[in-house]
Amino acid sequence: MTTKIAAAAGHWKLGGDLPVARMGFGAMRLPVRDAEGAPNERGDALAVLARAAELGIDHIDTAAFYHQGGLAANELIKEALHPYPDGLVIATKVGPGRRPGDRYPTYELEAGELRGEVERNLAELGVDRLDLVYLRVGGRAEPDGAPIGERFAVLAALREEGLIRRLGVSHVTAAQLAEAQRIAPVAAVQNRFDVTLPQDTGLMKTCERDSVAYVPYFPLGGFGLPDDERVAAVAARHEATAAQVLLAGLLALSPAILAIPGTSSLAHLEENAAAAGLVLTGEDMADLRR
Ligand SMILES: NC(=O)c1ccc[n+]([C@@H]2O[C@H](COP(=O)([O-])OP(=O)(O)OC[C@H]3O[C@@H](n4cnc5c(N)ncnc54)[C@H](OP(=O)(O)O)[C@@H]3O)[C@@H](O)[C@H]2O)c1
User: Fold this and answer.
1) Which of 34, 147, 235, 279 has its CA 20 to 30 A from that of 95?
2) What ranges do the domains of the chain cover?
3) Domain 5-288 part of CATH 3.40.630.10
4) How confident is the model over 162-206, as pLDDT tens digits?
């Protein structure tokens, strides 16, 4: 019997009424493990998605610009899971632009291009309404704080039209979050964070205060697990893996945090889902954040 081990860390209600298990899944690695590498095997990617659902993962993070060599995350999700099980929440992101031949997005879409990108996600995922759409702003460097109101207002209008259930913002500063919140309710923030980063947790605390989910991207470091002696020490104490400590550490940091680790490997998926049941102590957390 399969147990829904990913649900062990409990649930969060996006926007107050859309529940998701706090351990989710990031789909960016399904088409290709590393943007510079060869595409994955289609069958392997489909098997990872099917297994994720069995493990109790009901929050999948995707984007129309996650594709490589004929494999696209949205299309894989649809093939593996459509008709979608009740309660599955698929989050997507719009904002980045990717030209043919680019291996990843290289520019930002204008406000007038966002409706098309939302419609593309609707079609690729085979739904009439998207559960959660983030406006992803800025490039790959630190969030730049530039105004986002004009673009976020377009998504807010599409939500009013019924095409989107919940809105989020990604790669933002506290001021950009506040700007978005003045336009429409924000259910989630998706910024780069992992427990080993000495990054300010102020925005995370703001999210917690405002009942906004904080969804770290690159929760496992993004480019290979961080080689970190604090993580190794806590992992040894719990007979867990470093990846599990990174994920359990995130979940312990704030009740508003939702984990979306990415993987193209069934073994890593199982390992990551099991981290939902790893309970770290106050001492562990003090050591990790030292
Ligand atoms: N908003 C944004 O700007 C933004 C940017 C980047 C990503 N994202 C989202 O965030 C999600 C998570 O980020 P990510 O996937 O880029 O990075 P990540 O979760 O930090 O790390 C994924 C990498 O770690 C490896 N990995 C996964 N589980 C592992 C384990 N148990 N042990 C060892 N290695 C493991 C994966 O390789 P294997 O395939 O070999 O497991 C992959 O190379 C993405 O999937 C995407 O949905 C958003």
Assistant:
1) 34
2) 5-288
3) no
4) 999 999 999 999 999 999 999 999 999 999 999 998 877 899 999
